[in-house]
Design a protein that fits this description.
By secondary structure, this protein is α/β, with parallel strands linked by helices. It folds into two domains: 237 residues, Type I PLP-dependent aspartate aminotransferase-like (Major domain) (Aspartate Aminotransferase, domain 2, 3-Layer(aba) Sandwich), CATH 3.40.640.10; 92 residues, Aspartate Aminotransferase, domain 1 (Alpha-Beta Complex). It is built from 14 helices and 13 strands. The structure holds pyridoxal-5'-phosphate. Pyridoxal-5'-phosphate binds next to helix 3.
């Protein structure tokens, strides 16, 4: 059976061009700094994001972990949202591995952190009972608040706050290019206020593996050592970096297609009557929704019934579901899924 997989943009398959680039990639030992394809990817990524340097890492999780470890010493504190991926879904790595304390404050419905909450979260540097505030982490797009593109003005205001209080700013930009496309701004502009940024090649950009961490030269040198410490020094990694280059060259602008299809899906779901969109969906490539109270199916039953119709989607917390559009989701997939909703619910 053919499934249309709306669970996540992480389920994308590499394009034919990526497979060709991988097959013919020039490689070397990247731990010795000798892989030309990895170097080319790192330079291209840093260029596109307007930062000095880039570091190819295995995943968004590793990019965020290395960044936090490079910015914070053990016992220092990173302030971030309760809906932040690094807090919720990265296995507690920054605390488990780096001894970094995560201080959470609520995300506002628009994905942002309120500046007053940030201010209240600051520790007193003169009180040796308290951890030391060191870092703020924000996410763009903000996944669990609805795939929200976070504005440049807001990012600038957080960066100004961070500078004023001697903190650094890390941006988890797993889907920064979705934000850039949605806001009509170059990614380099959106991330300019941040000291460091991780973005993923493996989500909407369709590469099979990898993320890139970008920042200034000294920061990336430090991060490179930490990547090695974590076992993330890869050898002939040019094989996978080659797909990342194709991702940056060819897959960024087409994210607008995913946003268009998310809007198409949302329109169909609104018309269904048994589906209530949540989190102001869609804002980029994600749709969050709940089912009407009149629907007697449990979450597991609904997911299974949709699967029987060839449509995979995801449970996103109590009573809520998520669907994500991506390169493997065509207009036809959206139509099939809307028909499946009608069949299962009406
Ligand atoms: C916002 C955000 N940050 C980081 C990550 C982690 O990326 P990875 O799955 O490559 O570790 C994800 C993954 O979905 C994400 O959505």
């Amino acid at each position: 059976m053919q499934y249309f997989d709306f669970r996540s943009d992480t389920t994308t398959h590499p394009t034919e061009k990526m497979r060709q680039a991988m097959a013919s990639a020039e490689v070397g030992d990247d731990v010795y700094g000798e892989d030309p394809t990895v170097k080319a990817l790192e330079e291209k990524a840093a260029d596109m994001l307007g930062k000095d340097s880039g570091l190819f890492v295995t995943s968004g999780t590793m990019g965020n972990l290395v960044a936090v470890l490079a910015h914070c010493a053990r016992g220092e504190e990173a302030i971030m949202g309760t809906q932040g991926h690094t807090f919720l879904h990265e296995a507690g790595g920054v605390s488990a591995v780096g001894g970094v304390v995560i201080h959470t404050i609520p995300n506002q419905p628009d994905g942002t952190l309120a500046l007053t909450d940030l201010k209240n979260a600051l520790r007193n540097p003169d009180d040796y009972h308290e951890p030391t505030s060191r870092l703020v982490i924000i996410e763009n797009t903000q996944n669990f608040c609805g795939g929200v593109p976070i504005s440049l003005e807001y990012t600038e205001s957080v960066a100004a706050f961070a500078r004023e209080h001697g903190l650094l700013l890390h941006l988890d930009g797993a889907r920064i290019f979705n934000a850039a496309v949605a806001l009509g701004l170059p990614a380099s502009k959106l991330v300019a206020p941040a000291d460091s940024i991780t973005f993923c090649l493996s989500k909407g950009l369709c590469a099979p593996v990898g993320s890139v961490l970008c920042g200034d030269k000294d920061f990336i040198n430090k991060a490179r050592r930490l990547r090695k410490l974590l076992g993330g020094g890869m050898r002939q990694a040019g094989i996978i970096a080659a797909a990342g280059i194709v991702a940056l060259d060819e897959m960024v602008d087409r994210l607008a297609e995913d946003h268009r299809r998310a809007a198409m899906l949302a329109e169909g779901l609104r018309a269904n009557g048994k589906v209530h969109l949540t989190k102001n969906s869609p804002q980029t490539n994600m749709i969050f929704f709940q089912l009407d109270e009149s629907v007697a199916l449990s979450m597991a039953e609904f997911l299974e019934a949709m699967k029987q119709e060839g449509v995979l989607l995801m449970d996103s917390g109590p009573g809520e579901y998520r669907m994500v559009t991506h390169n493997d989701i065509s207009d036809k997939a959206v139509e099939v899924s809307l028909e499946a909703f009608r069949k299962v619910l009406n």
